[in-house]
Amino acid sequence: EYSPAGDKTIEIIGADYAENGPMGHWRGTIQPKDNQAAEWSAGRLGFGASTVCETAEGRVMFESLIQPDGPLGDTRSLFVQLISGAGQLVSQNDGPPLGIPPGRLKLSRDVQLVDRRPLDSNEPGSFVFFGVYDFATGERAEALTADGEPVENNAYRVDVQDYCGADRN
Q: Do the Cβ atoms of 64 and 36 come closer than 8 Å?
C-alpha cells in the first residue's frame, strides 16, 4: 500500500510484455494537488484538463488530471472509449486510475493524478467518451458538470485534437 505525502511527485511506470520482452511505459503521475477546478466529477473523482490527441506515431493519447475526493474503493475504474466520426467504437482502454488497483493507494484530497491512456486503432477516432464505473457490477458512476448538472449517459466527451506534439507520444 502506498500513501503519497508531502510535495513529492511520483512517476508511475507500467510494463507491457511484448515479443522481445518487457517494455516500460509512462502511465502518469501522483503529485501535490493543484488549485485547478474540475470540469466534471464522477465516483469520488474530479476531472480537469482532459485532452485527446494524435501522436506523431499515429496513436491517440487520452490524458486527464484527476482529483480524488478520498479513498476510491477496490473496484473503481475508468472507461475511455475512442469513437469514430460514424459513431462506432474503434478502441477502448479501461482500468483503474494509473493502472493501479484503487485499494492499493491511500488517496486523499491533497493529491492529484495525471492519468495517461493510449488508444490504438486502425480507424481514425473523432472523440473520446470517458467516465467512472464499478468493474464488479458494471454500474457507471453519476457524472456531473462543474455546475452540478448531470452528463448524458454518465460519460464525458472530448474531441480528438490533430496533433499532440513531440513531447506527448
A: no
* pTM for the whole structure: 0.79
Residue closest to 82 by CA, chosen among 125, 114, 112: 125
Distances (CA, A) of 68 to 59, 159, 166: 28, 24, 29
Strand-by-strand arrangement of the 45-54 sheet: 10-18, 21-32, 111-119, 60-68, 45-54, 40-42, 143-145
CB 29 within 8 A of CB 114: yes
**Grid coordinates 452528463 are at which residue?**
151
Instruction: Please choose, from the candidates 42, 36, 62, the residue with its C-alpha nearest in 3D space to the C-alpha of residue 51.
Output: 62
Task: Give the type of residue at 132.
Answer: V
Q: What is the pLDDT of residues 105-129, one digit of tens each?
A: 777 778 888 898 988 888 878 899 9
Q: How many residues does the chain have?
A: 169
pLDDT tens for each residue of 58-103: 788 898 888 888 777 788 899 999 999 899 999 999 998 888 877 7
